[in-house]
Amino acid sequence: MRRKHIAILTIAAVTTPLLAQNMMLQSDERSIETLAEYQTVDDQFGFDSRTRTPDAPFDDWLDTTSINIGRADANAAINSSISSTAMQATGSADAHAIFDVDTSVFTIAFATSRHIVAFELAQDTTFALVADLIATSNAESFITLRQDTRFGAILHEYAVTDDELSIDDQITLSAGTYYLEFRAESNHEHHSPAETTGNASFDAAWSVVPAPATTALLAIALMPRRRRQAR
């Protein structure tokens, strides 16, 4: 009985550094938005806009929103989960706008899917970033990591317009506050004859990479228990 008690104390001691690498979640600014608007030469107007956010900060969130007013339509979607060690999110945004040469004054279609979360680190921590970004036409998809504030200095940025990008990277951050953003956005504003469609999406995972020394110590701490089980 005494040996079992000592083994448990040892495991608790060596797992403390691993827990210290967790992200301390600070703010949740995730959202999806759609907007469509037009005006005709005979002063006919069309307008609709919708914005959706999670019911509670940091909750798992799956949502969509769509609008269609004839000359403009937009759709946005997100599936996002957050924990103290990882964030995973997929998002999409597509929009379509028509400016008719005979009847239009302007046409606007806009859609965006945003995963924006702030977190604090107490010590140096390495993260793995694995993502796919896709965008067509003038739509864009990007990932940014900023320090200190929502619009602070950009430490890392990945972006595509009318292109695709696969990311498999590791990033080490020092103690501090950071803002991580995944975004897909499609924006069309026409004041002359045109018809355009743009689609953008992201599929991203951000996770803590356990420190090698901590992992090794945890394995050593578990060895006595494994030996006893093997007997």
Describe this structure in words.
With 231 residues, the protein is α+β, with helices and mostly antiparallel strands. Helix content is 16%, strand content 64%. The protein contains two helices and eleven strands. The chain has helices at 2-20, 212-230, and strands at residues 24-28, 31-40, 45-52, 61-68, 72-82, 86-99, 104-121, 125-147, 154-173, 176-190, 194-209. Strands 1, 2, 3, 4, 5, 6, 7, 8, 9, 10 and 11 form an eleven-stranded antiparallel sheet that branches. The longest helix is centred in the N-terminal third of the chain and has 19 residues, at 2-20. Residues 1-20, 214-218 and 225-231 have low confidence and may be disordered.
